[in-house]
Each structure stands twice: as structure tokens, then as C-alpha cells.
Amino acid sequence: xxxxxxxxxxxxxxxxxxxxxxxxxxxxxxxxxxxxxxxxxxxxxxxxxxxxxxxxxxxxxxxxxxxxxxxxxxxxxxxxxxxxxxxxxxxxxxxxxxxxxxxxxxxxxxxxxxxxxxxxxxxxxxxxxxxxxxxxxxxxxxxxxxxxxxxxxxxxxxxxxxxxxxxxxxxxxxxxxxxxxxxxxxxxxxxxxxxxxxxxxxxxxxxxxxxxxxxxxxxxxxxxxxxxxxxxxxxxxxxxxxxxxxxxxxxxxxxxxxxxxxxxxxxxxxxxxxxxxxxxxxxxxxxxxxxxxxxxxxxxxxxxxxxxxxxxxxxxxxxxxxxxxxxxxxxxxxxxxxxxxxxxxxxxxxxxxxxxxxxxxxxxxxxxxxxxxxxxxxxxxxxxxxxxxxxxxxxxxxxxxxxxxxxxxxxxxxxxxxxxxxxxxxxxxxxxxxxxxxxxxxxxxxxxxxxxxxxxxxxxx
Length: 461
Prior knowledge:
With about 450 residues, the chain is mainly α. The chain contains 21 helices and 3 strands.
């Protein structure tokens, strides 16, 4: 066997057999000296082994960092792969492996709703109505409805404003929110009772208005502090008494005692929760206290919503029950809208594309809220159009409030409530179509404003 150099660059040795090869059989083994000429086969094997990590790279430097992380030394790069340095090998790998950019794993939905909690809140909104079912023979609410209605409107408006202010204080700390509720809730109950007192008439009517105001204030505290299950437990006597009515006549004492027991339990639970919240350590400097003016539009919206619901209830009382229970699913869909909007923001690259997706999300959520109300309206014998239009008005206004936009929905709903409420006083009086028309105009204005406002990506960042 003879060794002879090949070429002028002295980088290859040719090993030839000493015996003359057969014709056409040139048995020559070529050996490259390490460190000078790249070895394509070795580089290809390395590229195949690291393809899943090289593919997403956007620059050879990323591949170089990967090779360093794999522990390749300069000597190994020269001897094993025939490249003079790390960056030469990284460039070869980057050029050999096709670019592939896998989709990132889906991010968790930051607005994922608590389904059970939302449904429970919808039930809790309607359960107090059982008290009227139990106590109706004692004070005849049909003949003395003015005082409870006025007290309810005041409580509703005050509760909306107080709830907003308490949520602002929750950002500072639970203790600060509890202090706000401890001051505001009793004042709201006293205010509602005082406003209803001149309209009450007989003492039982005034007591009913006062009990209603006290309950709404206490229940509002528990709902703001997310103690829905405790409120449900406090209403157990009321639920048990109303459930037994079809088979048992409880008598005046039980009819009055069970709602009173539920009221006492609710107030006691509220006191317990507030005491626990006030015992938490005070937060540090949380900035200036929120101004009362910030909560004013929420209170005005509560008043407008109460008037609209009252006007609907005059013609279709069972529709009000359906609407009240639907507030739980409505809250759930508010969370879903925000989550779907964030997903749409991640899936689009242009403002126009996001606007289209945002409109689709809004239409889908609003349709999902209104669609179950249609058979519910049929079941209760209510006209579907007024109920659906009123529900759409309230949900779209709540959506805008959820994004911190309070004055436009408050003004629009107040205008609709004022026109619908004053229309019967005109000469000649307007027909029953005025409420659906007012709600339709409000829905059109609210949806248009929501598309203009929430169709911009900046509102969802």
C-alpha cells in the first residue's frame, strides 16, 4: 500500500493498493485532514437532530447560541464538522434547515368567567321576590305599590353608585372597600325609606318598604364582596316558605316571620363579612380617594334601568322575572365578550380586521343573551319585542360600563326612560309601543357607540 499526497493544497491523502487494480476499478480511499473542509454528511446529521430548534431561528446567531448550549467546543466543530469556527457551522445549519415558525401555545383566558357564580347571582337577583309572594295577604301590595316601588328605585340607583365606588376601593384593599360599604349601605337604606315614607300610607306598607330597603343594602354588600353563597344561605327560610305555599297555608305569623328571619340572617351575614373585612390589615398609600362624581353616572344608570324595568312590568310582570334571572347569564357574557375580544386582538394584524372581528363578537354575545329570552317570553305570555329590546339596552349599557365608559350609557338610558315614562301623560296618551320604540332607539345608539369605542384595539390591551 502506497501513500501519496494529492493536489497542491496538501489537505488530502490518497491511499492506493500496492497491487494493480483491475480495469475500471480505482480503489482509492480519500482522507481529509480535519479542520479545513466542511463535512456535509456530519453537518446534515446535526441539522436533522436539531431541526425543530433551528427552524424557528430568525438569524444564524440564534443557531450559534443553540450550539453553545449543546456544549460544542471549537475543537469539536473543526474535527467533527470541518468548519473553522462556531459561526461558520451555525450559518451552514441556518441555511440548510427550512424556516418554520410554530404557533405559540394558546394563552390562558384572562377573562374566563365563573359560570356557577354568575348563574347564582342571577338567581339571587330574583329570590327576594318570594317575600312579596309570602307577605302579599298581609299588606296587599297591589293597592299600596307606590312606596315599595319608589324605595326600590332609590335603592337600585344608590346601590349601583355605591357598588362602583366600593369596587374602586377594592383596588386599594378589602378593608377600604368595607369601610365604604359600612358607611354607604345604611345611608342608602335610610334614604330609600325616607323617600318612600310620605307615600306609604298604612304602617305595614312603610315596614315593607323599610325591610325592602334594608335587604337591598345588605345584599348589595354581600354581592360586592363576592359572598353569594352566604347570601343564598341567608335566604333559605324565604325559599322554604315559598316552596311550601302550594301545599300549605302558613298563616299570618309564618308569612311575616319567614321573610323577617331571612332579613335578619342577611343583615347578620353582612355584619359578619364586614367585620372580617375590616379586620384585615390596612393597605399602604393607595393614592387619592375616588371622587363621588365618578360613581354618579352608575347611579343614574341604575335609576334609568329601574324605570325602564318598571314600565315593562306594568304590562308584563312575568317578563320582569325573566329579565331579572337573565342578569346572571348577562354577566357571564360580559366576561366572554372581553375574553373573545382579547383572542380577536391576537388573531388580527390590522385595525380594520379587528373591527370586523369585534363586531362579530359583539353580535354573537348579544345574540347569545337574547336568544334564550325569546322562548322565555313565549312561556310567560309576554310580548317578545319589548322584552328583547329592553334586555339588549341593559346588556349593551352594562358592556360599556365594564370598559369604564359610564356617562354615554347613563345619558342614553335616562333619555329612553324619560321619554317612555312621560309619554303616558301626553294628550292624547301614547300607546304601549312607546317603550319598545324608546328601547330600540337606545339599543341603536348604544351598539353604534360600542362599535366605535370597542372596535379599537387599544381598548382591549
